[in-house]
Sequence to fold (246 residues):
Amino acid sequence: MNSPEDKVTKEPRLYVAADLCESASLALEEAHSHYLRNVLRRSDGDRVRLFNGRHGEWLAALRMEGKKGVAAAVQRCLRPQPNEEPQQTHLLFAPIKKARQEIMLEKAVELGVTHLQPVLTRNTEVRELRHDRNFQNLIEAAEQCERLTVPALLPLKPLAEILGTWPEAVPLLACVERRAVPRLTAALCAARGPLAFLIGPEGGFTAEEHAALQAQGSVRPVSLGESILRAETAALVCLALRQANF
Fold:
């Protein structure tokens, strides 16, 4: 027989910006209200789980307001926010086509990425990003996979600018192909603390970009093997192996 807590975990889960605490009452945004009323067909008294990345996860009761609105009365904390920040895992990536990038972002959230940095290189195919839409993808992935935080999504920047300001305390493993460099698995075995991965564009890094990477003290070129992986595959291999080495 299922326990009451088993039933709670089946309730819808939503990310909100508002502060969460016992007895708080908040009006849900229009998109959430539409989803609860018209897609899930929820009504007064039904429950929802809420999180905001700061105060843990809370159970709340719904209250329908007017013809379109929904409010949530916060009842109790289901999971407190950890006192310690999660171990930093950065993914630097050259943007790719929309459908494959959405899959990459979704799975990166599931695999524990904390920071996402789009990178503009010479061979980057997609040179503009819809930050709002990509961040919404991150929120939806966090809602689905039970994370208490949503990764940071940083603005698109040129590779040279990122390398010029990259912190030495965060090793940057640059995935390169067809080069005599250590395997990723060996680098991960030696890694401790925060870590970053750099995934280049489909056309690879130019000779000038390789030289810039080699000149940066915190960058460590690594190999993912003999096969040439698509950008999204390479990103997920890095994150999955990082998670397995925690």
Notes: The chain has two domains: 4-79, 89-244.
